[in-house]
Amino acid sequence: MFFDTHTHVNFSAFAKDAEEILNRAQKDTWLINVGTQLDTSTQAVEIAKRFETGVYAAIGLHPIHTYQQTVDEEETHFKTREEHFKSEAYEQLLTEKVVAVGECGLDYFRLPPDNKESAKVKQKQSFVSQLNFASKHGLPVIIHCRDAYEDLAEVIKSEYQGLGVIHSYTGDWAAAKKFLDLGFYVAFNGILTFDKTGRLAEVVRNMPSDKILSETDAPYLTPPPFRGKRNEPSYVRYVVEKIAEIRGVDPAAAEELTFNNACKLFNIKQ
């Protein structure tokens, strides 16, 4: 069994065929739908409740949704609205199917050019609020980080004592070690399959076996052989196969390893 620890079938990209996508995943893939604001978190929980097992939810506020801006990148185009993390609202979503808080964190890649420092302050305030929320409810965190690994490590070190995962990791081995020293897991997705720098391969080779996770971040970051098409949870197998190739192990062993690691971090019974 595979485990996609970070996907977004709760997003509008799957509005027309979410059930088909989820049913296809159920054949060999467990997954966590991850919220990025209150409405997508709510949707993630509603989806998880429809499945007895294999489909779970994370609830949280993404750093880019802490202020209003337009996001225009190769794989995504949308406008954000300013939202504040209100613990009372998120507490209403808590059920046994909610296995994490997130995705939360820091994103210095997408900052408004006329107000960068103010945006960073809002991101950090929201991040700390969610770390406190996770601690209060005994949940791990799913962390988004882009161009902010140094600041992220400092915030975690000073504000959080719990467990979590750095999702969609793109940093180097030196940065990864900082998070591992804090007890965190590190997750890899389709980027690993088409990264030509060799940096991620080095990280995967050096990762302790009990801290490595697989994910898709669907509908984004689609791995070969489906590059250019919408990603989905069942494609996490190609990430796991790449992890196996880099680490020189049997694909079945990498599948079992990443699945067991996910269940351990998110306290999911197999």
Topology:
Elements: E1 2-7, H1 18-25, E2 29-34, H2 38-49, E3 55-59, E4 69-72, E5 77-80, H3 87-91, E6 98-107, H4 116-137, E7 141-146, H5 149-159, E8 164-166, H6 173-181, E9 185-188, H7 191-194, H8 199-206, E10 212-214, H9 236-247, H10 251-265
Parallel strand pairs: 1-2, 2-3, 3-6, 6-7, 7-8, 8-9, 9-10
Antiparallel strand pairs: 4-5
Give a verbal description of the structure.
The chain is of the alpha/beta class and 270 residues long. It has a single domain, classed as Metal-dependent hydrolases (TIM Barrel, Alpha-Beta Barrel). The protein is built from ten helices and ten strands. The strands form two sheets. Strands 1-2-3-6-7-8-9-10 form an eight-stranded parallel sheet. Strands 4-5 form a two-stranded antiparallel sheet. Helix 1 links the parallel strand 1 and strand 2. The longest helix has 22 residues. The radius of gyration is 17 Å and the shape is globular.
| Number of continuous helical runs | 10
CATH-wise, what's the superfamily? Answer: Metal-dependent hydrolases
By secondary-structure content and strand pairing, the structural class works out as: alpha/beta
Query: Which radius of gyration do the C-alpha atoms yield?
Result: 17 Å
Q: Any idea of the CATH class? A: Alpha Beta
CATH topological fold name: TIM Barrel
Task: Give me the side-by-side strand order of the main sheet.
Answer: 1-2-3-6-7-8-9-10
Q: Can you write the helix and strand succession as a string?
A: EHEHEEEHEHEHEHEHHEHH
Low-confidence residue ranges: none
Q: Determine the mean pLDDT.
A: 95
Q: Note the main sheet.
A: 8 strands, parallel
